[in-house]
Design goal:
The complex is a heterodimer of chains A (513) and B (309). With 513 residues, chain A is α/β, with parallel strands linked by helices. Chain A folds into 3 domains: 1-83 and 162-242, P-loop containing nucleotide triphosphate hydrolases (Rossmann fold, 3-Layer(aba) Sandwich); 94-160, no CATH class; 259-511, 3-Layer(aba) Sandwich (Rossmann fold). Helix content of chain A is 34%, strand content 25%. Chain A has 18 helices and 22 strands. In chain A, the strands form 5 sheets. Chain A has a 6-stranded mixed sheet, with helices on both faces. Chain A has a 6-stranded mixed sheet with strand order 16-19-20-13-21-22, with helices on both faces. In chain A, a hairpin with a 2-residue loop joins strand 14 and strand 15. Chain B is mostly helical. Chain B has a single domain (7-127, 138-293), classed as ABC transporter involved in vitamin B12 uptake, BtuC. Chain B contains 12 helices and 2 strands, in the order ααααβαβααααααα. Chain B has helices at residues 7-36, 44-62, 65-89, 94-116, 140-144, 149-167, 169-179, 181-186, 191-217, 228-238, 243-266, 274-293, and strands at residues 128-130, 146-148. Chain B is globular and about 65 Å long. Classes of the chains: A alpha/beta (513), B mainly alpha (309). The A-B interface holds A 54, 56-57, 75-77, 80-81, 86, 88, 90-97, 101-102, 104-107, 109, 112-115, 156 and B 167-173, 175-176, 179-180, 182-190, 300, 308.
């Protein structure tokens, strides 16, 4: 139950990194039995603050009090022994070890120097029963689904008897149904007296789970507030520092001819498993087809197969603007009018060490416009790049700036500028706003709709269901490599799409309450 | 060819194969521990050379075989401290650092040998020790149980390594820092300390391997190992990072080598065709690697220096 007593107090926390003050005298506290949310954009300082709490970073200034006692936390081991636990965004599990081994790791064994895994397994089973967390201690973690892995993380924390648990974006990889289950578990933990720090930028979830919300912007606390006193719009405004339009305007538009056609596409994943099964899709000129689904259900492989980066199994066909490009390479597909915004912008979207200009030029660097007798023509290139930077509102000191020094949102704008300047007939947009701040997200959303109205056929792949619901004309739901169903956006209900994302067939999902 | 398939020749070949396998086994088992913690040491050959020289030198000066073994291990330990400092404390790239260690070991052992000894002189070798009862088993006894103590030790270290990795908390730490060091770090396991200790174990065993090599041969010459340390590293891959697999690789390698030697002695293959025959074990390993590499995966964090971001 919530009490007024403070479990944790962090006062005047300041932490500077070269060139940026990540935390600027932040005050933050957690009471026993409450879920206190840290809300903010990427780079607002949420992660830095909890990393200081967990001993991964040392603060430059400020103090921490835990259960009213001053604490110095210089290493994770100290945080753990003070009964602070942390569930990281990327699971901190060793895939090749069993659940019991993962739980036991770092804890004292009763049979030192030998392990006591049988005792650990018993205790894990006990915790599972108590908290309604179904996990089998003897299974290797790599065999578990994402939702199960998260349960292992919570069991790990409970096994260590944590009192204060930090959850860093725990819902990023879950289906809406799994999110609901997680929230039940978290609420139960809070009710039994635990203090929880929930880190998120998903406003809907923040409003439903939190007792209090602290909004951070540019390393400073904007306000600490309860959900009853605020709204998602107001929270968004606090995060960004100006009013934002969360739902883009999207007039209805009649689509034209078919631009992208995918038939019977089956694709292997990285480990030679089948990750896309017999997928059929049509995208018309002037429409956005959204692909919804939890990450890892074949979306990335589907996109890579369409882009020509991944080979397809016999029988599958990809047509761009009526031309079969199944056996053609990336260059041929681009020449046929394909634009590609890849899922991981720093991995295959842009080259971090290159300048903004070089990245803008990447696709067209061989074209006649930018070369003279095989040499790069820098005059024409710089003019072209400077125009793109201006047109797409890329915030960069110059086109000579290394791309890696830009923010995620601006790098994404560079990629969009490059892809859209080629005037694609088909645009493949994968996770276009992942890790991008709200301001840039708003801009990118408007850009995608503008492209649609210009007649581009867009395949939008996103894990953010709100994004798909806001942008798409039709929504295809992907689960375990298959398209579970395709629903026009006017008929789509959030809850129904959520069920389909968990593999429930379209008809059944439609009939659910 | 029929000369080869007589019982006594086969027994002798097996015996010599097991003897030849000993240094590989010791070095590969150590390297297995190191690699399971995420540290690749390409300098094994250099460490073996240095240890082999010092072991040889100690026997030459004192005649004390066990002191020589101890010195060999100690040299490995010192090289482990150096390699640990470079790769764990300074977070240097492992591949290049390992090659540096190799060249250092190769050069220093060569220099010391020329300065201190000059021309190769034979020294005492490790005596074979018969194990009571077992050594009397016909055929099997002479092949397996009339070996030197370091060979017995090498084979005893196989279950020891299995146990260390599988059943101890330190083994759990080693496996976790080799697969996902961030996860281990977040649970309060010191990645640096775990890797450092794993490196010390790996290098001590490479040192022991060097000592075993030189004390079985009873002589030292520059570049005595001729790349054995690199083969030992390859055997870890061959054995899929499991001590039993590594043992199979080391034995296979030793037996193929022994067979080649035996065939030369029997005139089955010409002695001056030795270069081609000497390649056989390497070709075998490469083939095995090609076949195996598709099935097993290396420790996920192998060769990756760890730092908190």
């Amino acid at each position: 139950m919530r009490s007024e007593q403070r479990l944790l107090e962090m006062n005047g926390i300041t932490k500077a990194f070269p060139g940026v003050v990540a935390n600027d005298s932040i005050d933050f506290d957690v009471r026993y039995g409450e879920v206190h949310t840290l809300l903010g954009e990427n780079g607002a300082g949420k992660s830095t603050l909890v990393k200081i709490l967990f001993g991964l970073y040392q603060s430059d200034e400020g103090s921490i009090r835990l259960r009213n006692d001053p604490m110095e936390i210089t290493a994770p081991a100290e945080a753990i022994s003070a009964r602070i636990g942390m569930i990281h965004q990327h699971f901190m599990l060793v895939p090749t070890l069993t659940v019991a081994e993962n739980v036991a790791l770092g804890t004292a064994s009763t049979r030192r120097p030998f392990t006591d895994l049988d005792l650990v397994s018993e205790r894990v089973a006990e915790i599972s029963r108590q908290h309604g967390l179904a996990v089998d201690p003897s299974v290797e973690v790599r065999r578990l689904a994402v939702g199960e892995r998260q349960r292992v993380e919570i069991v790990k924390a409970l096994y260590r008897d944590v009192e204060l648990l930090v959850l860093d974006e725990p819902t990023a990889v879950l289906t809406p149904g799994e999110v609901d289950d997680l929230f039940v578990i978290l609420r139960r933990m809070a009710d039994s007296g635990h203090g929880l720090i929930f880190i998120s930028h998903k406003l809907r979830e923040v409003m439903s789970l939190s007792d209090r919300i602290t909004v951070l912007r540019n390393g400073r606390v904007v306000q600490t507030i309860t959900p009853a006193e605020t709204s998602t719009e107001e929270l968004a405004q606090m995060m960004v520092g100006r009013s934002v339009n969360l739902a883009p305007d999207k007039p209805k538009r009649e689509p034209g001819g078919v631009r992208l056609e995918v038939q019977g596409l089956t694709v292997q994943g990285d480990r030679e498993e089948i990750s896309v099964r017999q997928v059929d899709l049509l995208v018309r000129s002037g429409e956005i087809l959204g692909v919804a689904g939890v990450s890892g259900n074949g979306q990335r492989e589907l996109a890579e197969a369409i882009a020509g980066l991944r080979s397809v199994e016999a029988g599958g066909v990809v047509r761009l603007d009526g031309i079969d490009v199944t056996d053609r390479d990336v260059r041929a597909r681009r020449d046929q009018g394909l634009g590609y915004i890849s899922e991981e912008r720093m991995k295959d979207g842009a080259i971090a060490e290159f300048t903004v200009g070089e990245n803008l030029l990447l696709v067209e660097h061989g074209s006649k416009k930018f070369t003279r007798r095989g040499m790069l023509a820098f005059g024409a290139i710089n003019k072209h790049c400077e125009k793109l930077v201006e047109d797409f509102g890329v915030k960069t000191p110059s086109v000579e700036t290394p791309t890696s020094s830009l923010s995620g949102g601006n790098i994404q704008k560079v990629i969009l500028a490059r892809e859209l300047s080629a005037k694609p007939k088909v645009l493949l947009a994968c996770q276009p706003t992942r890790g991008v701040d709200i301001g840039a997200t708003e801009y990118i959303h408007n850009l995608l709709i503008e492209q649609r109205d210009l007649g581009t056929a867009t395949l939008l792949i996103s894990e953010d269901l709100d994004e798909v619901l806001g942008l798409a004309d039709r929504i295809a739901v992907m689960y375990e490599g298959r398209i579970v169903g395709i629903v026009p956006v006017e008929e789509a209900r959030r809850n129904q799409i959520g069920l389909m994302m968990a593999g429930v067939p379209e008809q059944e999902a439609r009939n659910s309450p | 060819m029929s000369d080869f398939f007589t019982l006594s020749v086969l027994v002798a070949t097996a015996a010599s194969g097991i003897r030849l396998a000993t240094p590989y086994l010791l070095a590969s088992l150590g390297e297995t521990v190191g690699q399971r913690s995420g540290v690749l040491n390409l300098g094994v050959d250099g460490v073996m050379l240095l240890s082999a020289f010092f072991s040889y030198w100690v026997v030459l000066k004192t005649g004390n075989l066990w002191l020589a073994v101890l010195v060999g291990v100690a040299v490995g330990l010192v090289m482990g401290l150096l390699y640990g400092f470079i790769t764990v404390v300074l977070n240097a790239t492992q591949g290049i650092s390992g090659i540096g260690i190799y060249i250092f070991g190769l050069g220093l052992s060569d220099l010391l040998f020329r300065r201190q000894v000059g021309t190769p002189k034979p020294v005492r070798r490790l005596p074979d020790v018969d194990i009571p009862v077992l050594s009397d088993i016909p055929h099997l006894g002479p092949a397996l149980f009339q070996r030197n103590l370091l060979t017995y030790l090498a084979f005893l270290l196989i279950p020891t390594t299995v146990f260390l990795l599988g059943r101890t908390t330190f083994g759990l730490n080693i496996r976790s820092v080799g697969e996902n060091p961030s996860a281990a770090d977040s649970l309060g396991v010191s990645v640096r300390r775990t890797r450092f200790v794993a490196i010390l174990i790996a290098n001590s065993m490479a040192g022991l391997a060097g000592a075993a090599l030189v004390l079985q041969l009873g002589i030292f010459q520059p570049n005595l190992t001729q790349g054995m340390g690199f083969i030992a590293v390859a055997l870890v891959y061959f054995g899929a990072w499991r001590p039993i697999g590594v043992m199979c690789g080391a034995l296979l390698y030793g037996l193929v080598n022994a067979t080649v030697l035996q065939w030369k002695a029997l005139g089955i293959i010409p002695v001056n065709g030795s270069d081609l025959a000497a390649m056989a074990p390497a070709v075998l390993t490469i083939l095995a690697l090609v076949v195996l590499a598709r099935r097993v995966s290396a420790p996920a964090a192998l060769t990756r220096p760890f730092s908190r971001h």
